[in-house]
């Protein structure tokens, strides 16, 4: 019998697929289209099995859909600009480009050995000129539309990466990449106006039923929409007003102080001379503090009285004004009306500074001691003049309307989302295509001059300044408008800009005069299935949705959501830890392929857990799957020996054959449902294992096996496993005498007829007299048959006591009653 040698058959079939160009996708076809996309990697080293999980899942989807008759687009590329590459290049003292390209070559080789069905003709590398030219083009389009702008402001600075970070890249006050505590710097930087799309980005989520709920929730929270009111509080003795934002206008009778953010210019405008020194000291102290800690719910509430009062526009009361550390300058209006009775932060502040606490909402039932804790729930309005007795929820509307009528305030919607800061002070990125001219100011680089090339011989050690500042050749240029001397923007774009549109470039990776063809992308997109890590729930997935919506509104694409369905896979752990080089717990796919073959590795990755769950790598686990793969192989070639042996008589289907055929089709049905009903690849493989055991039993126990049945099983098994273990499937198909490639065949359907079980008819007696018959599936147990029999004579034995039932196997049931 033929031995299983994956090291021989795998490279052989990979070569055949490549030579026959089976995975090269035609731009259009009669078949329905299917775009299967995996998140492309940072080429910052070699891949470990955790990365490969992503691509394996994507490959099952792509191969399965291909075998269902779809025109499948399944591309691959590299997110090749960025800090990891640059930092590693510095550490290894080689140029980021060389380092990146070397890694790409290694990764490509690793993936090819996995037998993933990519169309390699469509490979996209974001650091290549023919790609970043179009990233710059997208910047220009946003600039023209007023969606890219430069502004000074406090930005997040990573002292270790020596660059600014977008808010999305700061996790709990730390750099998303390196974990260093982020500080604040004042810089003039480029932003994309993602806030203008806040509402569209929220609404779009409702049109994505194929996204996991938790990812949509994370995006909703990040966008952070709040509905409330803006109210103006006049300042006593000055011709000034303080505008506040509140989500609780129903509590306005309970305001006992106001608080302003330390960064607000209002603070120094309002402070009295007596208080100036104290306030300036406070501002200096706060400026040194960590903004994330300072404004967290648990942080100690601190502030200083400005010596000034405001007037509550509804009650006319005098309200002391404070500067306070817990107010964010960038949210709402940067100032609040404080209601300590109903807001925890205001409560803590009032307790610390001995300010009054005035209850204006009471619980519907029972009492509340407002000195002990704030009451933050809904309730009934009290101490609120004409509004007393209103339910607080209704009160929000009523009070807002009242203020609008009196011109005191207006309804307002606020978002937590901030504009996307895209400037980076690092080398390895796409230069921002902007020129500064003394005469003309900011001038965008004309489209015909793209790309603005990244110069290669530049000292790129991080200094806090963009390395391009050091390249005189790059910096000096002429103004496209007036022809006078000018200089280029020296900062590069956040790499999340590169990755926010790569899925469009895959459609036309070689187009030279445009980033993509509108008709072509309208055919292929939205992506039918996107697969990647949940760590991108906010960053990449939000930015890609934003850029797509902008391109849609500018008329370049016909769709406004890029990814129809999203699947987030779990991670692979080893020894309880996420795999990482620094932990030394990395499992290399190359080693596993050498030892077991790619098909075993693929099967194990899929079998180890439901793919959305984290899973722990186990050497025993892959051993086990490998044994199964070999058993399956052996059964297969045992079958082929029988099929090909001329001395075996063709037997009629008996009971065993019918039963085994039923199990075969039940397995096909199960695997189909597992794949289509939500990526249940682990149970699909378990189903295959179960069938393989049943097949072993048959081959061992039956003397004269049916060639006809074995031929059907052999054919179906090869087809079924083809998406999972494609090399082995191809070899089996070939050895079965087929002349086609299995990847170009249809995945099998199950035979509804075969699923039906055989039936037997049983005579039913009551007290020894024949009273009827029942027909039951042959597989029924004695217990089930008796139950059916009793059921069939229910009327006859009504009111009588059931004494006993006797079963004569396959013939009759006698029911004894009194
Ligand atoms: C009065 C009030 C009474 C409030 C009450 C809450 C409860 P979200 O849901 O996050 O939008 N606020 C407004 N701007 C702020 C800023 N820049 N920094 C810190 N806090 C700010 O929260 C809105 C509420 O947070 C607003 O409603 C305001 O306090 C506070 F019983 O106004 B509230
Ligand atoms: Zn000029």
From TrEMBL:
Pfam families: Anticodon_1, tRNA-synt_1, tRNA-synt_1_2, tRNA-synt_1g
Motif annotated as 'HIGH' region, chain positions: 41-51
Location of the protein in the cell: Cytoplasm
Residues of the Leucyl-tRNA synthetase editing domain: 220-404
Reactions accelerated catalytically: tRNA(Leu) + L-leucine + ATP = L-leucyl-tRNA(Leu) + AMP + diphosphate
Coiled-coil annotated residue ranges, if any: none
UniProt-listed Enzyme Commission number(s): 6.1.1.4
InterPro entries: aa-tRNA-synth_I_CS, aa-tRNA-synth_Ia, Leu-tRNA-ligase, Leu_tRNA-synth_edit, M/V/L/I-tRNA-synth_anticd-bd, Methionyl/Leucyl_tRNA_Synth, Rossmann-like_a/b/a_fold, tRNAsynth_Ia_anticodon-bd
Principal cellular location given in the protein's record: cytoplasm
Methionyl/Leucyl tRNA synthetase domain residues: 40-179
Gene Ontology molecular-function annotations: ligase activity
Entry-linked NCBIfam families: leuS_bact
Entry's family note: Belongs to the class-I aminoacyl-tRNA synthetase family.
Domain Aminoacyl-tRNA synthetase class Ia: 416-618
Organism: Fervidobacterium changbaicum
Protein name: Leucine--tRNA ligase
UniProt motif ('KMSKS' region) ranges: 578-582
Residue span, Methionyl/Valyl/Leucyl/Isoleucyl-tRNA synthetase anticodon-binding domain: 658-779
Annotated residues for binding of ATP: 581
Keywords linked to the UniProt accession: Aminoacyl-tRNA synthetase, ATP-binding, Cytoplasm, Ligase, Nucleotide-binding, Protein biosynthesis
